[in-house]
Write a structure and sequence with these properties.
Radius of gyration: 15 Å
CATH superfamily: 2,3-Dihydroxybiphenyl 1,2-Dioxygenase, domain 1
CATH architecture: Roll
CATH class: Alpha Beta
Structural class: alpha+beta
Bound molecules: carboxymethyldethia coenzyme *A
Helix content: 10-25%
CATH topology: 2,3-Dihydroxybiphenyl 1,2-Dioxygenase, domain 1
Shape: globular
Length: 137
């Protein structure tokens, strides 16, 4: 698989509003985008750190997978996202190497990305996202 860089780190928070003073006031990062991803039941906030972003994930409903994550494990790092040239191709490659996919095909995510997740049970416990900026066909 051709990974170019870590595109973002997803961090689960109960409230973006409550998390902002730390990221902006203490770390000195600037939130440049807040966006809701309806089908994932999350509100997201983005900060650029070099080539990588921090993505805060706030659940928008109690049955959001992020709400479930926070309930079970508390707030904290939720997933790592690797940039690849083509998400669909990378997903197929991962599956061919025995990794169970959460997303069989790439789908639209926040920030105009095409995204697909690998199941954490097959990735050493780290929820892993593959993503690219190419438009879905
Ligand atoms: N990282 C590592 N392990 C995780 C995890 C995470 N973020 N979320 C859940 N798990 C583990 C659980 O701890 C559990 O392990 P055990 O069986 O040992 O207890 C196992 O995975 C199953 O978890 P669950 O609580 O039963 O939750 P679900 O099966 O309902 O969902 C998962 C787990 C990963 C399949 C689901 O969260 C998913 O589909 N994630 C991909 C989509 C996503 O995360 N969307 C939000 C972000 C969207 C965005 O960035 O735009």
């Amino acid at each position: 698989m051709e990974i170019s860089h870590i595109e973002h780190l997803g961090i689960a928070v109960k409230s973006i509003e409550s998390a902002l003073p730390y990221y902006e006031g203490v770390l000195g990062l600037k939130c440049y985008n807040i966006e809701t991803v309806a089908d994932q039941k999350v509100k997201t906030a983005f900060f650029q750190v070099g080539q990588t972003k921090i993505e805060l994930l706030e659940p928008t409903s109690d049955d959001s997978t992020v709400a479930k994550f926070i309930e079970k494990r508390g707030e904290g790092i939720h997933h790592i996202a690797f940039a690849v040239p083509n998400t669909s191709v990378a997903l197929t490659e991962a599956e061919s190497k025995g990794i169970q996919l959460i997303d069989k095909t790439a789908r639209p995510g926040a920030e105009g990305l095409n995204i697909g997740f690998l199941h954490p049970k097959f990735t050493g416990g780290v929820l892993t996202e593959l993503c690219d900026h190419t438009k879905n066909e």
